[in-house]
């Protein structure tokens, strides 16, 4: 991976949810990879949703201080603020693609951060919004397959170049 990857709240939540062990493991693998490669991106909206869900809605609730420590760590990913630029882009996406307002905000934040991937299970796996491709972190493997080809040297031209002859 070389391009930034936007992480939606459900991935962050599953990383803390012991009630779904296979999804938890996969979410943790993705987060570890993104931290290691410094390619993780998110938004203030996503971090707010994460905080509320892990402190109030998980069966094994997270202590608010621990949840806040996690949120604070994600500030290193330079989360997209909720501002006029984000809201205008989200409105365009909402109108063009008929997404919910909250999903439009997530897609807009991924676009504004020049992300190639948006990891979420809330949108259709494989759908493309501009330069952002939505993928489920539970169907897309963390490891990229190695290239099955090598760059071939550029062939010599068959014809003489046009213009002045060389002396």
Number of helices: 6
CATH architecture: 3-Layer(aba) Sandwich
Taking pLDDT < 50 over at least 5 consecutive residues as the criterion, the unreliable ranges are 145-153
Series of secondary-structure elements, N-terminal to C-terminal? EHHEHHHHEEE
CATH class bucket: Alpha Beta
Question: Which structural category fits the helices and strands?
Answer: alpha/beta
Helical amount among residues, as a percent range? 40-55%
**What is the average per-residue confidence, as pLDDT, rounded to a whole number?**
89
Instruction: Count the E strands.
Output: 5
The CATH H-level homologous superfamily: 5'-nuclease
Looking at the structure, the CATH topology is: Rossmann fold
Distance between the termini: 48 Å
Tertiary shape: globular
Q: Proportion of β residues?
A: 5-15%
Compute the CA-based radius of gyration. Answer: 21 Å
Counting structural domains, the number is 1
What would the keywords be for this entry?
single chain, Rossmann fold, 6 helices, 167 residues, alpha/beta, five-stranded mixed beta sheet
């Amino acid at each position: 991976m070389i391009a930034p990857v936007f992480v939606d709240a459900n991935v962050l939540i599953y990383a803390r949810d012991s009630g779904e062990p296979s999804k938890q493991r996969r979410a943790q693998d993705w987060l570890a990879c993104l931290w290691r490669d410094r390619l993780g991106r998110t938004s203030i909206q996503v971090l707010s949703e994460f905080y509320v869900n892990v402190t109030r809605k998980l069966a094994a609730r997270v202590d608010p201080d621990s949840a806040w420590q996690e949120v604070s760590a994600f500030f290193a990913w330079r989360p997209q603020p909720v501002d006029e630029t984000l809201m205008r882009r989200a409105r365009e996406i909402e109108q063009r693609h008929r997404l919910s307002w909250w999903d439009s905000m997530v897609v807009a934040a991924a676009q504004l951060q020049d992300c190639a991937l948006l990891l979420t299970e809330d949108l259709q796996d494989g759908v493309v919004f501009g330069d952002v491709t939505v993928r489920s972190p539970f169907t897309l493997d963390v490891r990229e397959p190695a290239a099955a080809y090598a760059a071939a040297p550029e062939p010599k031209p068959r014809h003489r170049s046009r213009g002045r002859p060389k002396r």
